[in-house]
Amino acid sequence: MPSKAATLPGHILDLTPVKSKCYTNSMAFENQDQILIDRCLAGDNRAFNDLINRYKRQVFSLIFRLVHNQSDAEDIAQETFIKAYKSFASYDPSYPFLTWLFKIAHNSAIDFLRAQKPDSLSIHDEDNPLDIEDTDTSLEARIEAASQQELIDKVLGTLPPLYREILILRHQQELSYEEIAETLDIPVGTVKIRLFRARDIMKQKLVKLGYG
Q1: Alpha carbon of 50 to those of 6, 9, 12, 53, 106: distances in Å?
Q2: How many CB atoms lie within 10 A of CB 27?
Q3: pLDDT tens across 63-99, in order?
Q4: SS3 4
Q5: pLDDT-based confidence at residue 127 (cuts at 50, 70, 90)
Q6: What letter does residue 158 receive in the DSSP assignment?
Q7: 141 vs 32: CA distance, rounded Å
Q8: Distances (CA, A) of 110 to 17, 118, 119
Q9: Which domains does the chain possess?
Q10: If you compute the radius of gyration of the chain from its CA atoms, what whole number of angstroms results?
Q11: Rounded to 5 degrees, what angle do the CA atoms 56, 59, 64 make?
């Protein structure tokens, strides 16, 4: 576990919104993560800094999409990595390291929104689980047709934060249902419902803009 005497690198604050699609973890990348994690658990503080450098932009991007303010997102990202640093021993290696970071980032961002904009977290009708298969590719087709990242960012920005977040986790970060459930601390059935409704809203907005 990282020593308490070690300090986090100041350059984790050097963050800007990410407009390009974030990469998906390959098996090789996950293996490299595990090497760094093993070194971190052995007390190598530089390994934790390397992990931060790998994922700081993905974490910032997720937070920024939720709070829509760069300064707030930078503060929450800093808080996320500090929390991760202090609680590294609780990391479950059965999940990808990025999923664990996203969970901390999600909780930190939601705490911020709950304090600053509680109404923005209101979404409905997630209590009844549905058997929804992930077979709808029309959203990806509309996004590909739109192609302009600024347009996609603008449309995403009009969705409620929790719908915005789940689309990012699924379609940009390409997390599995199980990884999203772990990140958001909700049942897989709720993930499917929230994703289904988020896609539907996104489709309607794209259709109104002429991408139907």
Answers
A1: 14, 10, 11, 5, 21
A2: 7
A3: 998 898 999 999 999 999 999 988 888 888 788 889 9
A4: coil
A5: very low
A6: T
A7: 33
A8: 19, 9, 12
A9: 23-120 (1.10.1740.10), 125-208 (1.10.10.10)
A10: 18
A11: 115
